[in-house]
Amino acid sequence: MFSTLSAYAGDPILSLQLAYRDDPRPDKINVSIGMYYDDDGSIPRLESVQRAQKIVNASTAPSTYLPMSGSPAYCKVAQELLFGKDADILLAGRVATIQTLGGSGGLKVGSDVLKKFFPNMVARVSDPTWDNHRAILEGSGFTVEAYPYFNPVTQRLDFEAMAEYLHTQAEQTLIVLHPCCHNPTGADLNFAQWDEIVQIIADRKLLPFLDMAYQGLGESLERDAYLVRALVRADLPFLICNSYSKIFSIYGERCGSLSMVCANADEASRAMGQMQQAVRRNYSSPPAYGGHVVETVLQNAELRALWESEVDAMRERIQFMRLELHRGLMRFHPAYDWDFLLAQRGMFSYAPALAPHMQELIEKFGVYIIESGRICVAGLNTHNVERTAKAFATVLK
Ligand code: LMR
Question: What is the pTM of this model?
Answer without folding.
Answer: 0.97
